[in-house]
């Protein structure tokens, strides 16, 4: 593999890994550095895309028509009722489903082969109001993800049975432990000191051990919102 | 047409969630994905109102074709594909007024995202400024979780062409982040 071929692959998908690429990177420091840069950039791209663009056309001098203002107000009221109805009537497994959908949307998270630096973990925890006792050599993937209106730490922890995903959900309260199986994944959501913690693995498996460890290792910082 | 559609999944959400409605689970599933779909459409269309129209229309199409969804766990990529096609259809048929990014302002400021000088402000604007041929595969990959082969099928391109577009998209964004761009690759845009 040439450097151009390696950089094309890395630039197209920084999380990808093939034997030929790894072989090349083992002997080419420049391309290895390029991949580090692209992976860091990709983290920012993901964070940037996780929120909608929030763009609007600039205001012109023209006054909006009165009926448009009333229509807008009516739309807001209707939308509020609709959202409230969905919120009140949503099934109890919605949280689990959204956790699974979120993990499905980051398939590259399972493929990480190198542990995350302490700085990377700090960035993933930033704004979430938590600290971790876990050592960085156990964490293969760490992102701060936009989930249900908040940034939550999304970690992949290496266990004896393979990688497991952990989402620390400070703003999601659950009354009791809840297990689920969906999309080829097994998961458990457990209540925590504040909020809850979701643990998922591909295939079947007992996740209670890791969930219990996370309940112990996650420290909820005061005055976080 | 939209409002008179009796089976619309969006015309009456609360009514649709009645226990007697056998389609309530699929409606809830679709509705649970609306924020993801809207965000995806928003990055494609770069206009909130158009994105909402696209998602509305896509959900209607999905609802009418809901029997084709055999596996609910595949709903997300299925719906994202419908949204992408609806976006393409809207622009191809209606020739919508293009949004000039020079005239666009960012709203709903939040630290690090919308404030000029914020950490990702420049990057978000750079992504918005990417030509659609680069922005679309990037959004499909990063937000949609689509593989190169899936993007190639969806865009009727070769896998190599998709790799090239993704490479170029990120290479353009490298510059915004103060990194040296990599040497460009020859264009290979042949269909699969």
Task: Summarize, please.
Chain A is α+β, with helices and mostly antiparallel strands and 225 residues long. Chain A has seven helices and nine strands; from the N terminus they run αααβαααβββββββαβ. Chain A has helices spanning 3-12, 19-27, 29-49, 66-89, 94-104, 118-125, 208-217, and strands at residues 55-56, 130-132, 139-147, 150-159, 162-169, 178-182, 185-191, 196-202, 218-220.
Structure write-up:
The complex is a heterodimer of chains A (225) and B (192). Chain A has 225 residues and is of the alpha+beta class. Chain A folds into two domains: 1-49, no CATH class; 92-220, no CATH class. Helix content of chain A is 41%, strand content 24%. Chain A has helices at residues 3-12, 19-27, 29-49, 66-89, 94-104, 118-125, 208-217, and strands spanning 55-56, 130-132, 139-147, 150-159, 162-169, 178-182, 185-191, 196-202, 218-220. In chain A, the strands form two sheets. A six-stranded antiparallel β-sheet of chain A has the order 3-4-5-8-7-6, sandwiched between helices. In chain A, strands 2-9 form a two-stranded antiparallel sheet. Chain A starts with a helix and ends in a 5-residue tail after the last strand. Mean pLDDT of chain A is 80; it is low at 55-63. In chain B, 56% of the residues lie in helices and 1% in strands. Chain B has nine helices and one strand. Chain B is an all-alpha fold. In chain B, 38% of the residues are buried. Chain B starts with 12 loop residues before the first helix and ends in a 16-residue tail after the last helix. The interface between A and B is large, with 47 and 58 residues.
């Amino acid at each position: 593999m040439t450097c151009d071929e390696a950089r094309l692959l890395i630039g197209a998908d920084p999380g990808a890994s093939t034997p030929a690429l790894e072989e090349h990177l083992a002997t080419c420091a420049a391309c290895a550095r390029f991949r580090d840069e692209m992976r860091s950039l990709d983290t920012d791209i993901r964070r940037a895309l996780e929120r909608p663009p929030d763009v609007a056309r600039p205001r012109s001098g023209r006054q909006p028509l009165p009926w448009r203002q009333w229509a807008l107000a009516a739309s807001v009221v209707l939308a509020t009722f609709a959202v409230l109805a969905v919120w009140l009537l949503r099934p109890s497994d919605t949280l689990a489903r959204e956790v699974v959908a979120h993990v499905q949307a980051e398939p590259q998270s399972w493929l990480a082969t190198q542990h995350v630096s302490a700085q990377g973990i700090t960035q993933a925890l930033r704004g979430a109001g938590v600290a971790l006792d876990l050592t960085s050599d156990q964490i293969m993937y760490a992102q701060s993800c936009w989930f249900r209106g908040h940034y939550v730490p999304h970690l992949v922890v290496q266990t004896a049975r393979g990688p497991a995903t952990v989402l620390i959900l400070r703003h999601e309260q659950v009354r009791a432990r809840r297990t689920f199986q969906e999309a080829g994944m097994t998961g458990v959501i457990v209540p925590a000191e504040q909020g809850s913690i979701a643990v998922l693995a591909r295939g079947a498996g007992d996740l209670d051990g890791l969930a219990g460890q996370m309940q112990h290792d996650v420290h909820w910082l005061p005055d976080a919102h | 047409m939209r409002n008179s559609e009796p089976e619309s999944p969006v015309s009456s959400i609360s009514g649709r969630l009645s226990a007697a409605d056998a389609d309530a689970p699929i409606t809830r599933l679709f509705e649970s994905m609306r924020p993801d779909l809207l965000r995806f459409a928003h990055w494609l269309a770069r206009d909130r109102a158009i994105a909402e129209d696209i998602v509305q229309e896509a959900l209607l199409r999905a609802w009418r074709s809901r029997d084709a969804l055999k596996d609910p766990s595949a709903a997300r990529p299925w719906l994202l594909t419908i949204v992408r096609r609806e976006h393409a259809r809207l622009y191809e048929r209606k020739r919508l007024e293009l949004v000039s990014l020079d005239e666009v302002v960012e709203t709903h400021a939040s630290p690090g995202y919308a404030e000029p000088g914020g950490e990702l402000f420049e990057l978000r604007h750079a992504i918005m400024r990417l030509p659609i041929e680069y922005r679309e595969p990037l959004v499909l990959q990063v937000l949609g979780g689509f593989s190169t082969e899936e993007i190639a099928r969806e865009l009727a391109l070769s896998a190599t062409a998709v790799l090239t577009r993704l490479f170029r998209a990120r290479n353009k964004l490298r510059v915004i982040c103060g990194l040296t761009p990599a040497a460009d690759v020859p264009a290979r845009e042949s269909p699969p």
